[in-house]
Design brief:
The chain is an alpha+beta fold. The chain is built from eight helices and twelve strands. β7 and β8 form a beta hairpin. It holds the Pfam family DUF6744. It comes from Solibaculum intestinale. Keywords: Coiled coil. This is DUF6744 family protein.
């Protein structure tokens, strides 16, 4: 695994740059939907909002955020309760259900009591609660109402996961390679540094629109162009390239085995395979070496690509 101390960064005005190391953190981010879309459009991003935009995500965020810890003392001693939601077994695809519970902390074994069900109807995209249980120590209805309030808040906002999908899309367009240490640390090759500057400005504006008091930050460092750094980046490229090739091989084979004929899906996989080849060529130029250690793996992916092309042609002939 790569270690931070093995990465050599250089000042901005230095010569001989192969790219930049880029780090970001957007924990607990919350931005109004219309504001985030407007920010992305102002920066000219191709993707300005999540691909999937269901309110079921707002339901999950609301029920996950609904938690409390209650401590009080009486003649019997100190009592500690945790109030939160937990998953129910999903037996109905049309309705998502989570259970509001009270967990009583004991010295050996904690006890649990159901307080209510909080549900989401997918077709109507509505959230409600029912099956309230009386509890002498907990105002169950107030917690359920709080869940509805949280749902109203999350349904009008995008969260960290949503913004992260936009950032990841930009990083993919910059042919970024994720560094194999914990956290969001990426290597951005030199040709894409102007786009990285735009992404950093975008995150600065998103930070100003954050409704939560949480840390939103990003930083970048230039990486020197020497043999040691090129070798390290080649290792990171191989790790990412291998992961992508294996994932593509598995998903494409599943599509082929199932007899898939979706033209949009076949076109999308062809674009992704071509993008992988373009990324490899870009890194060969930046790192000044042939990156051919995974050519055998990529050759199998190209065979799958040919099969996709053949099936695409057959699908078009049948439709003609």
């Amino acid at each position: 695994m790569m270690r931070m101390e093995n990465l050599m960064a250089v000042p901005e005005n230095s010569t001989g740059i192969i790219g930049k190391m880029f780090y970001y953190s957007i924990a607990n981010l919350l931005v109004r939907r219309d504001r985030l879309i407007a920010i992305g459009q102002d920066f000219g991003f191709p993707k300005v909002k999540p691909t999937k935009d269901s309110l079921s995500g707002a339901y999950r965020c609301a029920t996950s955020a609904l938690k409390d810890r209650v401590t009080f003392r009486d003649a019997a001693g100190t009592h500690i309760y945790k109030i939160y939601c937990r998953e129910n077994k999903q037996e109905d695809a049309a309705v998502i259900c989570r259970e509001l519970v009270k967990e009583t902390l004991n010295s050996k074994t904690n006890s649990y009591a159901k307080l209510a069900n909080i549900l989401f109807v997918r077709e109507r995209e509505e959230m409600y609660y029912d099956n309230l249980q009386h509890d002498p120590d907990v105002d169950v209805q107030s917690y359920c109402e709080k869940a509805l309030t949280l749902f109203d808040r999350f349904r009008s906002c995008y969260t960290s996961d949503h913004v992260d999908s936009i950032i990841k899309d930009q990083l993919d367009r910059m042919q970024a390679v994720k560094i194999s240490i914990h956290g969001n640390l990426y290597f951005i090759p030199r040709p894409f540094l102007p786009q990285l500057s735009i992404l950093e400005d975008y995150l600065s504006v998103v930070k100003s629109a954050n409704l939560n008091e949480s840390l939103v930050t990003c930083n970048s460092m230039y990486v020197a162009d020497d043999e040691g750094q090129r070798e390290k980046m080649a290792e990171e490229f191989y790790a990412n390239f291998r992961r992508d090739v294996e994932a593509y091989q598995e998903k494409i084979q599943q599509f082929l085995d199932k007899g898939g004929t979706s033209q949009a899906t076949m076109d999308r996989w062809q674009e992704r395979i071509a993008a992988l080849q373009q990324k490899k060529q870009s890194y060969e130029e930046v790192l000044r070496r042939q990156l051919d250690a995974l050519d055998d793996d990529y050759a199998f992916l190209q065979m799958q690509s040919q099969e996709l092309k053949l099936r695409s042609m057959q699908t078009k002939l049948k439709a003609a």
